[in-house]
Specification:
- The chain contains 7 helices and no strands.
- α2 packs antiparallel against α3.
- The N and C termini lie far apart (about 45 Å).
- By secondary structure, the chain is mainly α.
- It is globular, with a radius of gyration of 14 Å.
Amino acid sequence: RNGERQRLTESLAYLVNELRHWTPASEVEAIVEAVMSWADNSQKSSILFGRLFLMALPAEAAATIVEDGRLFRWWELLPPEANNRNCLMWLAIPARVAKVRW
């Protein structure tokens, strides 16, 4: 049962990550609204939703997220007990900015 759940989770993560490449930057606000409506830093699930958001965010929209300061506001949504690995996941956005602008 646990192995089945793990495979399902990995498949879903792969699907979301692949869809990012086909998602137009104009859809970012809808993605932000949908994912962030579930974010609650009193819940450990906020890490999951943050990760889901990172996987779904198109690279072309990453610069806007950094420039308008939303990245740093979202970073603060992580629960206080989040470990460094979870905090570092947000570095994916500036990395995408660098990749697009390179």
